[in-house]
Amino acid sequence: MPLSAAAIVEAAHRLLLDYGLQDVSMRRLAGELGVRPGALYYHVPSKQQLLADVAHRILAPLADPPGTVGVEELMRRFRATVLPIRDGADLMLIAFGLNPGLPPVPALRRGLERLGLASGLAHERAQIVMHFALGAVAAEQNAALLHPTPETTDREAPNRETTGPETTRGAALYDEGLRLLMPTAD
Amino acid sequence: MPLSAAAIVEAAHRLLLDYGLQDVSMRRLAGELGVRPGALYYHVPSKQQLLADVAHRILAPLADPPGTVGVEELMRRFRATVLPIRDGADLMLIAFGLNPGLPPVPALRRGLERLGLASGLAHERAQIVMHFALGAVAAEQNAALLHPTPETTDREAPNRETTGPETTRGAALYDEGLRLLMPTAD
DNA sequence: ACCTGAACACCGTTCAAGT
DNA sequence: ACCTGAACACCGTTCAAGT
Are the CB atoms for B29 and B12 separated by under 8 Å? Predict the structure, then answer.
Protein backbone atom coordinates (compact mmCIF):
# COMPACT_ATOMS: atom_id res chain seq x y z
CA MET A 1 0.00 0.00 0.00
CA PRO A 2 1.12 3.57 -0.58
CA LEU A 3 2.55 5.82 2.06
CA SER A 4 0.22 7.87 4.25
CA ALA A 5 0.44 10.72 6.72
CA ALA A 6 -0.52 8.34 9.53
CA ALA A 7 2.26 5.90 8.65
CA ILE A 8 4.81 8.73 8.60
CA VAL A 9 3.68 10.04 11.97
CA GLU A 10 3.89 6.54 13.41
CA ALA A 11 7.39 5.97 12.07
CA ALA A 12 8.49 9.35 13.41
CA HIS A 13 7.05 8.46 16.80
CA ARG A 14 8.99 5.20 16.86
CA LEU A 15 12.18 6.93 15.79
CA LEU A 16 11.67 9.51 18.54
CA LEU A 17 11.17 6.91 21.27
CA ASP A 18 14.11 4.81 20.13
CA TYR A 19 16.72 7.45 19.33
CA GLY A 20 15.53 10.88 20.44
CA LEU A 21 14.51 14.06 18.67
CA GLN A 22 17.82 14.79 16.96
CA ASP A 23 17.56 11.53 15.06
CA VAL A 24 14.11 12.30 13.69
CA SER A 25 15.14 13.77 10.36
CA MET A 26 13.10 13.72 7.18
CA ARG A 27 15.91 11.88 5.41
CA ARG A 28 16.29 9.25 8.07
CA LEU A 29 12.52 8.86 8.25
CA ALA A 30 12.42 8.34 4.50
CA GLY A 31 15.14 5.70 4.80
CA GLU A 32 13.19 3.92 7.51
CA LEU A 33 10.11 3.88 5.28
CA GLY A 34 12.02 2.72 2.19
CA VAL A 35 11.26 5.85 0.25
CA ARG A 36 13.02 8.99 -1.02
CA PRO A 37 12.96 12.13 1.17
CA GLY A 38 10.85 14.08 -1.29
CA ALA A 39 8.06 11.52 -1.07
CA LEU A 40 7.28 12.55 2.50
CA TYR A 41 6.25 16.00 1.32
CA TYR A 42 3.41 14.57 -0.67
CA HIS A 43 1.76 13.52 2.62
CA VAL A 44 3.07 16.00 5.19
CA PRO A 45 3.45 19.77 4.76
CA SER A 46 6.57 20.23 6.87
CA LYS A 47 8.73 18.68 9.54
CA GLN A 48 7.29 21.07 12.08
CA GLN A 49 3.72 19.95 11.44
CA LEU A 50 4.86 16.34 11.54
CA LEU A 51 6.44 16.85 14.95
CA ALA A 52 3.30 18.55 16.22
CA ASP A 53 1.30 15.50 15.11
CA VAL A 54 3.72 13.21 16.90
CA ALA A 55 3.34 15.31 20.06
CA HIS A 56 -0.42 14.99 19.78
CA ARG A 57 -0.12 11.20 19.60
CA ILE A 58 2.09 11.16 22.68
CA LEU A 59 -0.21 13.40 24.71
CA ALA A 60 -3.48 11.77 23.63
CA PRO A 61 -3.67 9.58 26.77
CA LEU A 62 -3.82 12.77 28.85
CA ALA A 63 -6.87 14.09 27.03
CA ASP A 64 -9.64 12.45 29.04
CA PRO A 65 -8.46 11.39 32.47
CA PRO A 66 -11.01 9.84 34.83
CA GLY A 67 -12.72 12.34 37.12
CA THR A 68 -10.83 10.88 40.07
CA VAL A 69 -7.52 12.13 38.68
CA GLY A 70 -6.73 15.47 40.28
CA VAL A 71 -4.96 18.37 38.63
CA GLU A 72 -1.65 17.67 40.31
CA GLU A 73 -1.75 14.01 39.38
CA LEU A 74 -2.61 14.98 35.79
CA MET A 75 0.45 17.23 35.61
CA ARG A 76 2.63 14.57 37.19
CA ARG A 77 1.55 12.30 34.36
CA PHE A 78 2.49 14.98 31.86
CA ARG A 79 5.98 15.10 33.32
CA ALA A 80 6.24 11.31 33.44
CA THR A 81 5.14 11.13 29.79
CA VAL A 82 7.55 13.72 28.43
CA LEU A 83 10.61 13.16 30.59
CA PRO A 84 11.68 9.75 29.21
CA ILE A 85 11.68 11.07 25.63
CA ARG A 86 15.00 12.56 24.64
CA ASP A 87 14.39 16.31 24.07
CA GLY A 88 10.73 15.62 24.75
CA ALA A 89 10.16 19.06 26.25
CA ASP A 90 11.65 20.78 23.21
CA LEU A 91 9.19 18.83 21.10
CA MET A 92 6.32 19.89 23.35
CA LEU A 93 7.40 23.52 23.17
CA ILE A 94 7.15 23.31 19.38
CA ALA A 95 3.81 21.54 19.58
CA PHE A 96 2.26 23.95 22.09
CA GLY A 97 3.42 26.86 19.96
CA LEU A 98 1.49 25.42 17.03
CA ASN A 99 -1.52 24.39 19.16
CA PRO A 100 -1.88 25.80 22.69
CA GLY A 101 -4.95 23.64 23.35
CA LEU A 102 -3.12 20.31 23.24
CA PRO A 103 -3.71 17.80 26.05
CA PRO A 104 -3.52 18.03 28.97
CA VAL A 105 -4.69 21.67 28.71
CA PRO A 106 -8.47 21.11 28.42
CA ALA A 107 -8.50 18.55 31.25
CA LEU A 108 -6.33 20.90 33.29
CA ARG A 109 -8.81 23.71 32.77
CA ARG A 110 -11.74 21.52 33.80
CA GLY A 111 -9.86 20.35 36.88
CA LEU A 112 -9.11 23.91 37.94
CA GLU A 113 -12.78 24.85 37.56
CA ARG A 114 -13.65 21.89 39.75
CA LEU A 115 -11.34 23.40 42.35
CA GLY A 116 -13.40 26.57 42.36
CA LEU A 117 -11.83 28.82 39.74
CA ALA A 118 -14.19 30.70 37.42
CA SER A 119 -13.87 29.85 33.73
CA GLY A 120 -11.69 32.82 32.83
CA LEU A 121 -9.40 32.35 35.79
CA ALA A 122 -9.16 28.62 35.15
CA HIS A 123 -8.07 29.33 31.59
CA GLU A 124 -5.39 31.73 32.80
CA ARG A 125 -4.19 29.41 35.53
CA ALA A 126 -4.01 26.46 33.15
CA GLN A 127 -1.60 28.39 30.95
CA ILE A 128 0.53 29.39 33.91
CA VAL A 129 0.73 25.82 35.16
CA MET A 130 1.52 24.60 31.65
CA HIS A 131 4.30 27.16 31.26
CA PHE A 132 5.84 26.03 34.52
CA ALA A 133 5.56 22.37 33.56
CA LEU A 134 7.17 22.93 30.15
CA GLY A 135 9.98 25.00 31.62
CA ALA A 136 10.62 22.55 34.44
CA VAL A 137 10.78 19.48 32.22
CA ALA A 138 12.88 21.28 29.60
CA ALA A 139 15.37 22.45 32.22
CA GLU A 140 15.48 19.01 33.78
CA GLN A 141 16.18 17.33 30.46
CA ASN A 142 18.80 19.82 29.32
CA ALA A 143 20.59 19.48 32.65
CA ALA A 144 20.52 15.67 32.43
CA LEU A 145 21.81 15.79 28.85
CA LEU A 146 24.72 18.09 29.60
CA HIS A 147 26.03 16.86 32.92
CA PRO A 148 24.72 13.30 33.08
CA THR A 149 24.58 11.49 36.39
CA PRO A 150 25.61 7.81 36.45
CA GLU A 151 21.99 6.65 36.42
CA THR A 152 21.19 8.78 33.40
CA THR A 153 24.10 7.75 31.18
CA ASP A 154 22.57 5.44 28.61
CA ARG A 155 23.69 6.93 25.32
CA GLU A 156 23.61 5.04 22.00
CA ALA A 157 21.33 2.45 23.58
CA PRO A 158 17.64 2.95 22.83
CA ASN A 159 15.88 4.59 25.77
CA ARG A 160 12.64 2.66 25.44
CA GLU A 161 12.84 0.29 28.38
CA THR A 162 14.83 2.80 30.42
CA THR A 163 13.80 4.71 33.51
CA GLY A 164 14.89 7.90 31.78
CA PRO A 165 16.31 10.98 33.49
CA GLU A 166 13.87 10.65 36.40
CA THR A 167 15.30 11.94 39.66
CA THR A 168 13.70 12.36 43.07
CA ARG A 169 15.20 15.85 43.18
CA GLY A 170 13.46 16.85 39.94
CA ALA A 171 10.19 15.30 41.02
CA ALA A 172 10.19 17.10 44.37
CA LEU A 173 10.93 20.45 42.73
CA TYR A 174 8.16 19.90 40.21
CA ASP A 175 5.65 18.90 42.88
CA GLU A 176 6.44 21.96 44.96
CA GLY A 177 5.96 24.20 41.93
CA LEU A 178 2.59 22.62 41.23
CA ARG A 179 1.55 23.04 44.85
CA LEU A 180 2.35 26.75 44.78
CA LEU A 181 0.30 27.21 41.62
CA MET A 182 -2.78 25.38 42.90
CA PRO A 183 -5.77 27.51 43.86
CA THR A 184 -6.14 27.50 47.64
CA ALA A 185 -4.41 30.09 49.79
CA ASP A 186 -5.31 33.02 47.57
CA MET B 1 45.24 40.79 15.05
CA PRO B 2 44.34 37.13 15.26
CA LEU B 3 40.93 35.80 16.08
CA SER B 4 39.92 35.29 19.71
CA ALA B 5 37.18 33.59 21.68
CA ALA B 6 35.90 36.99 22.78
CA ALA B 7 35.67 38.26 19.20
CA ILE B 8 33.74 35.15 18.16
CA VAL B 9 31.29 35.49 21.05
CA GLU B 10 30.76 39.13 20.18
CA ALA B 11 30.12 38.39 16.52
CA ALA B 12 27.70 35.61 17.48
CA HIS B 13 25.88 38.01 19.78
CA ARG B 14 25.52 40.56 16.99
CA LEU B 15 24.30 37.89 14.57
CA LEU B 16 21.78 36.72 17.15
CA LEU B 17 20.37 40.19 17.77
CA ASP B 18 20.19 41.02 14.09
CA TYR B 19 18.88 37.77 12.59
CA GLY B 20 17.87 35.35 15.35
CA LEU B 21 19.19 32.05 16.61
CA GLN B 22 18.66 30.04 13.44
CA ASP B 23 21.05 32.34 11.60
CA VAL B 24 23.85 31.84 14.12
CA SER B 25 25.72 29.04 12.39
CA MET B 26 29.41 28.32 12.65
CA ARG B 27 29.76 28.71 8.89
CA ARG B 28 27.94 32.02 8.73
CA LEU B 29 29.88 33.25 11.75
CA ALA B 30 33.12 32.32 10.01
CA GLY B 31 31.99 34.23 6.93
CA GLU B 32 31.18 37.28 9.03
CA LEU B 33 34.67 37.13 10.56
CA GLY B 34 36.42 36.59 7.21
CA VAL B 35 37.74 33.20 8.16
CA ARG B 36 37.16 29.50 7.37
CA PRO B 37 34.73 27.52 9.56
CA GLY B 38 37.46 25.30 10.95
CA ALA B 39 39.33 28.29 12.36
CA LEU B 40 36.59 28.87 14.93
CA TYR B 41 37.36 25.53 16.56
CA TYR B 42 40.82 26.68 17.47
CA HIS B 43 39.24 29.21 19.85
CA VAL B 44 35.92 27.68 20.84
CA PRO B 45 35.25 24.04 21.78
CA SER B 46 31.74 23.74 20.30
CA LYS B 47 28.74 25.67 19.12
CA GLN B 48 26.91 24.80 22.30
CA GLN B 49 29.59 26.35 24.52
CA LEU B 50 29.68 29.38 22.27
CA LEU B 51 25.92 29.87 22.65
CA ALA B 52 26.21 29.49 26.41
CA ASP B 53 28.82 32.25 26.42
CA VAL B 54 26.56 34.48 24.35
CA ALA B 55 23.73 33.85 26.81
CA HIS B 56 26.05 34.85 29.65
CA ARG B 57 26.82 38.14 27.90
CA ILE B 58 23.14 38.85 27.40
CA LEU B 59 22.23 38.11 31.01
CA ALA B 60 25.20 39.87 32.60
CA PRO B 61 23.21 43.07 33.30
CA LEU B 62 20.90 41.00 35.52
CA ALA B 63 23.72 39.77 37.73
CA ASP B 64 23.90 42.63 40.24
CA PRO B 65 20.69 44.61 40.35
CA PRO B 66 20.46 47.45 42.88
CA GLY B 67 18.97 46.42 46.21
CA THR B 68 15.86 48.44 45.41
CA VAL B 69 14.96 46.07 42.56
CA GLY B 70 12.51 43.50 43.88
CA VAL B 71 12.30 39.88 42.80
CA GLU B 72 9.29 40.43 40.57
CA GLU B 73 10.91 43.40 38.87
CA LEU B 74 14.09 41.35 38.37
CA MET B 75 12.14 38.61 36.63
CA ARG B 76 10.24 41.12 34.54
CA ARG B 77 13.62 42.35 33.34
CA PHE B 78 14.58 38.79 32.50
CA ARG B 79 11.50 38.48 30.31
CA ALA B 80 12.10 41.88 28.73
CA THR B 81 15.69 40.91 27.97
CA VAL B 82 14.97 37.53 26.40
CA LEU B 83 11.68 38.20 24.63
CA PRO B 84 12.99 40.53 21.86
CA ILE B 85 15.64 37.98 20.82
CA ARG B 86 14.36 35.54 18.23
CA ASP B 87 14.34 32.10 19.90
CA GLY B 88 15.88 33.76 22.93
CA ALA B 89 14.21 31.35 25.33
CA ASP B 90 15.53 28.33 23.43
CA LEU B 91 19.00 29.81 23.80
CA MET B 92 18.46 30.33 27.53
CA LEU B 93 17.26 26.76 27.93
CA ILE B 94 20.53 25.56 26.41
CA ALA B 95 22.54 27.95 28.56
CA PHE B 96 20.78 27.08 31.82
CA GLY B 97 21.28 23.40 31.06
CA LEU B 98 25.01 24.01 30.82
CA ASN B 99 25.12 26.37 33.80
CA PRO B 100 22.11 26.51 36.18
CA GLY B 101 23.67 29.37 38.16
CA LEU B 102 23.50 31.93 35.35
CA PRO B 103 22.05 35.38 36.11
CA PRO B 104 19.50 36.23 37.32
CA VAL B 105 19.57 33.12 39.53
CA PRO B 106 21.94 34.33 42.28
CA ALA B 107 20.20 37.70 42.57
CA LEU B 108 16.86 35.90 42.56
CA ARG B 109 18.00 33.70 45.43
CA ARG B 110 19.19 36.68 47.45
CA GLY B 111 15.93 38.48 46.80
CA LEU B 112 13.90 35.52 47.99
CA GLU B 113 15.97 35.33 51.17
CA ARG B 114 15.28 39.02 51.72
CA LEU B 115 11.60 38.14 51.54
CA GLY B 116 12.01 35.73 54.42
CA LEU B 117 12.83 32.36 52.86
CA ALA B 118 15.58 30.30 54.47
CA SER B 119 18.60 29.60 52.28
CA GLY B 120 17.56 26.10 51.23
CA LEU B 121 14.00 27.16 50.48
CA ALA B 122 15.20 30.24 48.59
CA HIS B 123 17.38 28.02 46.43
CA GLU B 124 14.46 25.75 45.67
CA ARG B 125 12.06 28.59 45.00
CA ALA B 126 14.54 30.31 42.71
CA GLN B 127 14.65 27.23 40.51
CA ILE B 128 10.88 26.98 40.42
CA VAL B 129 10.51 30.63 39.47
CA MET B 130 13.22 30.23 36.83
CA HIS B 131 11.50 27.19 35.35
CA PHE B 132 8.26 29.10 35.10
CA ALA B 133 9.99 32.10 33.53
CA LEU B 134 11.79 29.98 30.95
CA GLY B 135 8.63 28.05 30.06
CA ALA B 136 6.51 31.18 29.83
CA VAL B 137 8.91 33.09 27.58
CA ALA B 138 9.54 30.03 25.41
CA ALA B 139 5.81 29.43 24.95
CA GLU B 140 5.21 33.09 24.23
CA GLN B 141 7.93 33.20 21.58
CA ASN B 142 6.92 29.97 19.88
CA ALA B 143 3.31 31.13 19.75
CA ALA B 144 4.35 34.48 18.26
CA LEU B 145 6.55 32.75 15.71
CA LEU B 146 3.91 30.32 14.53
CA HIS B 147 0.73 32.38 14.41
CA PRO B 148 2.04 35.90 14.19
CA THR B 149 -0.22 38.80 15.08
CA PRO B 150 -0.04 41.91 12.85
CA GLU B 151 2.19 43.74 15.36
CA THR B 152 4.62 40.85 15.49
CA THR B 153 5.10 40.34 11.75
CA ASP B 154 8.52 41.78 11.04
CA ARG B 155 10.34 38.98 9.26
CA GLU B 156 13.52 39.44 7.18
CA ALA B 157 14.05 42.86 8.75
CA PRO B 158 16.49 42.92 11.66
CA ASN B 159 14.68 42.93 14.98
CA ARG B 160 17.08 45.27 16.75
CA GLU B 161 15.05 48.44 16.99
CA THR B 162 11.80 46.51 17.19
CA THR B 163 9.39 46.19 20.06
CA GLY B 164 9.52 42.43 19.62
CA PRO B 165 6.70 40.02 20.38
CA GLU B 166 5.71 41.96 23.51
CA THR B 167 2.02 41.71 24.27
CA THR B 168 -0.01 42.96 27.22
CA ARG B 169 -1.64 39.54 27.36
CA GLY B 170 1.71 37.77 27.76
CA ALA B 171 2.92 40.29 30.32
CA ALA B 172 -0.21 39.93 32.47
CA LEU B 173 0.01 36.13 32.40
CA TYR B 174 3.67 36.27 33.34
CA ASP B 175 3.06 38.72 36.20
CA GLU B 176 0.27 36.59 37.60
CA GLY B 177 2.52 33.52 37.53
CA LEU B 178 5.24 35.41 39.38
CA ARG B 179 2.73 36.62 41.95
CA LEU B 180 1.57 33.07 42.67
CA LEU B 181 5.15 31.91 43.15
CA MET B 182 6.15 34.69 45.53
CA PRO B 183 6.50 33.78 49.20
CA THR B 184 3.65 35.28 51.19
CA ALA B 185 0.45 33.36 51.71
CA ASP B 186 2.18 30.13 52.62
C1' DA C 1 -2.10 9.74 -7.46
C1' DC C 2 2.18 8.85 -5.85
C1' DC C 3 6.96 8.75 -6.05
C1' DT C 4 11.97 9.37 -7.94
C1' DG C 5 16.03 11.98 -9.22
C1' DA C 6 18.31 15.62 -8.69
C1' DA C 7 19.19 19.66 -7.23
C1' DC C 8 19.44 24.08 -3.96
C1' DA C 9 21.22 25.94 -0.16
C1' DC C 10 22.80 24.75 3.66
C1' DC C 11 24.67 22.27 8.54
C1' DG C 12 28.71 20.96 12.84
C1' DT C 13 33.04 19.08 13.29
C1' DT C 14 37.75 17.16 12.37
C1' DC C 15 42.37 17.28 10.96
C1' DA C 16 46.49 16.98 7.99
C1' DA C 17 48.96 20.39 6.00
C1' DG C 18 50.64 24.98 5.40
C1' DT C 19 52.59 29.60 7.26
C1' DA D 1 50.39 29.70 17.21
C1' DC D 2 46.96 30.18 14.07
C1' DC D 3 44.57 29.16 10.04
C1' DT D 4 43.30 26.81 5.35
C1' DG D 5 41.63 23.09 2.44
C1' DA D 6 39.18 19.53 2.18
C1' DA D 7 36.67 16.23 3.63
C1' DC D 8 32.91 13.42 6.48
C1' DA D 9 28.46 12.79 7.40
C1' DC D 10 24.73 14.95 7.33
C1' DC D 11 20.31 18.65 6.98
C1' DG D 12 14.91 20.57 5.08
C1' DT D 13 12.63 21.53 1.02
C1' DT D 14 11.27 21.90 -3.96
C1' DC D 15 9.91 20.28 -8.28
C1' DA D 16 10.19 18.56 -13.05
C1' DA D 17 9.78 14.20 -14.66
C1' DG D 18 8.41 9.49 -14.57
C1' DT D 19 4.88 5.54 -13.66
Answer: yes
H runs (alpha helix) in chain B: 5-19, 26-32, 37-40, 47-59, 71-82, 88-98, 105-114, 119-146, 168-181
Round to whole Å and give the CA distance between A170 and A152. 13
Cα distances from A175 to residues A152, A170, B61, B70, in angstroms, run 21, 9, 31, 26
Where are the alpha helices (H) located in chain A, listed in sequence order?
A: 5-19, 26-32, 37-40, 47-59, 71-82, 88-98, 105-114, 119-146, 168-181
B positions 102-141 inside 8 Å of A (CB): 124, 127-128, 130-136, 138-139, 141
Q: What angle do CA B32, B38, B43 make, to 5 degrees?
A: 80
For residue B133, which residues of chain A lie inside 8 Å, CB to CB? 135
Give the three-class secondary structure for A32: helix
Per-residue pLDDT of chain A (186 residues; tens, 9 = 90+): 789 999 999 999 999 999 999 999 999 999 999 999 999 999 999 999 999 999 999 999 999 999 899 999 999 999 999 999 999 999 999 999 999 999 999 999 999 999 999 999 999 999 999 999 999 999 999 887 766 554 444 444 444 444 456 788 899 999 999 999 999 855
Rounded Cα gap, residues B132 and B101, in angstroms: 16
Domains of chain B: 1-44 (1.10.10.60), 48-181 (1.10.357)
